[in-house]
Design goal:
Shape: globular
Largest sheet: 7 strands, mixed
Strand order of the largest sheet: 6-5-4-3-2-1-14
Order of helices and strands: EHEEHEHEHHEEEEEHEHEHEE
Strand content: 15-25%
Number of helices: 8
CATH superfamily: Ribonuclease Z/Hydroxyacylglutathione hydrolase-like
Low-confidence stretches: none
Oligomer: single chain
Helix content: 10-25%
Amino acid sequence: MKIKFYGTAAVDGVPALFCKCRVCEKTRAEGGRNIRTRSQACIDGTLLIDLPPDTYMHAVFGGLPLQDIEHCLITHSHYDHFVPEELDIRTAYCVAEVSHGFTVYGTDKVEAALGNRVHDQKFLDRVGFSLIEPFTPFTAADYRITPLAADHDAESGPVIFLIEKDGKTLLYGNDTGYFPTDTWRYFETARPKLDLAVFDCTFGNRPGMRNNHMNIQTVIEVRDRLKETGCINADTKNYLHHICHNSWTTHDEFSEIAASYGFTVTYDGLEAEI
């Protein structure tokens, strides 16, 4: 299983529009891996995670094979993760031919964000929707996927995803703060063996961030508790993702801090394989 991170930022991106903080100004000056677009990932070129406003950029400049993808998981309905208007471009008005279907998987809040599209047959001829619920596994392509409850704005229908295929297991874990009780109960009961874990670390090394998003101190708590349950071991690859300019660090600065705790910080274009 291979995951590619096309975007790795929170809602504001790095550098953020209008912002003159040290991180944004340094990013404008130095570029490179410091630049972050809104978070999006794809597994094996087949399973897309989220549809942010930077999807077009990821397709044109990042090589995202959107024209070939059939399945799209949506973590929640916030606009930096789901822009339903992008799906209108798949309709016959904009796209002459498609060779396959395209299904969006999301909670009832994601369905609500689609609005009247779910009743428009012209839209449904090109885009399908599959309703998902926390802790109820489903299959997309050849992947077994279990949505888990997230600590984030409840009105956005947030979930994180446990993704399994061919004996490998990946946790895609943003947007969320310290995991909710029901999610911890799942891990302590099911005890999935994680080969790769992607953690929300929106606020980097900034202190006191635990709810809705995490900082590295909270991620360490989560990782260590997952170790205690047997879900994470010495071979698990641990990544910090969904980074905000309000983390107060550039990519290189935060990578040095993260490495000392056994984490890799994602950047736009990073690929990881298990």
